Amino acid sequence: MTFVVGLFLSFFAFQKFRKSKEDNRYFHLNLTISFISFGCVGLVLTTRAWIQDVETLVLWNDLLYFFVAPLAPTAFYLAFHMTGKQSKLLLYYSYVCWFASFVLYLGVILGKGFETNVFEFPFGKYPRGSAFVRPWGILAPLGYFLLILPSFIKHYHYIRKHYHLTLFHGVNLLFLLTTLNAPSILGFKVYPGGFFLFIPMLLVAYGVFRSDFFDVNELLFQKNGMFYFLFALLSFVLIFISFGVSFGLSPNAYESAKWYPWGIPPVVSVFGAVFLSIIVAGANPSARINQLCAFALILTGFYVIQSVPLKLNISYVVQLRISQMTFVAFAFAPSIMVRLVFEAIGQKSPVWLKGIDLLCITAAILSPSPYLFVGYYDYPWSRVHHGGPAELLVGANGAIALVLVLITFLRNKGYINFASKWIIGSFLLSALLLLAALLPSHGIPIYPIADFQFIPAFLLGYAVLRHGALSLEGRTIQLSQRLANLGLITMAIAAILYFPLIREQYGVGESAFHLTMIVLPLVLFNYLVVYIMSRPLAEELDISYFLLDLEKQKADEEREKALIAQDKAEEAREESEKLLLNILPYKVAQELKAKGSVNPVRFENATVLFTDFKGFTKVAEGMDEQSLIEELDACFTQFDEIILRNNLEKLKTIGDSYMCAGGLPVENRTSAIDACLAALEIQSFMNQLKEIKTALNLPFWELRLGIHTGPVVAGVVGRFKFAYDIWGDTVNTASRMESGGETGKINVSKETYELVKYFFVTEYRGKVHGKNKGDLDMYFVHRLRPRYSQDPDGKAPNQYFREVYSRISRGANIRWKKES
Questions:
Q1: I want to staple 749 with a disulfide (CB 3.0 to 4.6 A). Which of 591, 694, 708, 784 is the partner?
Q2: Which residues pair with 657 in a beta bridge?
């Protein structure tokens, strides 16, 4: 029992270890190892009660102490954790115990772990520990009394605040009972208390669950923990039955006439309940009601198992031991059945269920004791145990549960659905059959109708399946069912082939009964392994297929949305790119996107062009706002197209003034030429507009235009509204060229003149005063020289001009002949 409880708890502790955070991982790891070690103490004690050969016993003790040795260091670490990690000595002492454990391992490896000198007790042989084992046996109890007990007393309030008291008492009792094993290891014949380790293990289990170390509901039901635990236990029982009958049941066992027909009802009940538990649990392993129903059916089967040997002519001691083992599990039937009923009606477990649980635990503890049965009665149908106090406790607990469930049903019958009523009805029928079994066990000669438990078992299985707790059918689930059915056919063929072999020893009826008891457990085991153990995997795969299909559909939808979003994003990007390029030059815009800012740059030979409308204010006074804006926009739009054709960059407009520049943001050698070409086009456009307005007798604007070439600094100003601008004296000089010019003409500075004089017809104006600039040399640019013009007016350049222009832009130095 200690070993089973230890494995059970270590499973849950390991699950928690896998999911716990970094702070608690060491705690849950030590908890897992500790539970395994305490459980293996139970195996050690079992070998000492079972193995008579001393050398074999020593060998098994050496092997098992590999798993028992970590008990001491992990237990001290757990105590350190329970004190809130305040007692550092406990942590350091756990390291010392680890060292002692490694010394123990060394002795075991050398074959000197335990001595062949043993203490003989009525309950087994206890070998003495060698010098390699004794330090471990001394340190553990010594540390408990000198360190753990004082630390627990000192930090009692912290422990009580953070942990359930059951855990506190269970841990202390574990240490005390384990300490009682130390004297026999050290060479003193003292009664070992380890026999009762399962009691504090159960207390620790209860305390651990109540302290919320584990999410029990998640592990038992959502993670199918109860499902796997139950059917692992059931698998062991089925194999045990098959091998026990095959190797332990002689033909003499059938000499009694009681095996037929009295043995048939319990056999049908046992295997019927097991088969139904497999069907119900396999239908939906993750459903709580299915697992509780399977648990209840298995416990019912455990009770009826003990009725089968009583129909055979075998030793009463064997019959008694089988009954005691089955009652350890069956004692929990009232607790499970009540939980099943309340799960079915959709209510929380009642408070009084804790009392039922306590009685179940007490009955389970007393079941292996002499208090379960105190003899037996011989009836015509079979032998029946004479019930003792423990059996009466099981019966009384069942009766109490029956009455309380009946009261609950009567109070809520108007709200309970049909399937739930079937579940409650099957529970009541099963409880009545079991209570009736108390009569023959106390001398009243009535056939134990509890052997017919297959009736309420079938009702219960039908009700739970009818309740709707069925899983989805799918491809992999259907495959597991077919594999299980194939196993059934295989076992049936094997049984038919085996029948003639046992027919020589048994009669026909005995052979059939014997073969049934051998083959049917194997059939159910096969069905359980193939169908049940693969069922959760199959269901997960089917759900995975279903989810994959959903994910594929979602992925397709998301892909379509992504493509649409990508198209929209591309459109938005292009739109923003277009807007950015409307504000900034291409090179500057790219730098701004790449770096988030633009470094200012100095250009040594930039050409700045300014325009301004003469008499704008006077003309504007006679126009409405809308017409004024439309007129101005039409002019500036035309200017934009002209300067774009001539490799200039628009900088800004200020009222009726227009400013642009050449030779930036990409430096070139043709900016002055470009500006003059653009100026000719602009003045030509304004002249055409003047002619049209004059013909329509409408007011018109005349334009002054000035150009200057020189160094400037260019950059981007502003964070939210970007603007590409230039600074320097060149800008001011260009503005003076515009203000000092004449309407309808292009006025340029001497610096610009020197760069364009070989291409354009110019006129020197002399020195003209510029505001804040003094006297400045100014020139009018009238037209392209005839050799470079393709039209009589000299506005459009010809091919020869373009060839020379191209050579200059590529960096060639041109030597000009003097023009006549």
A1: 708
A2: 654
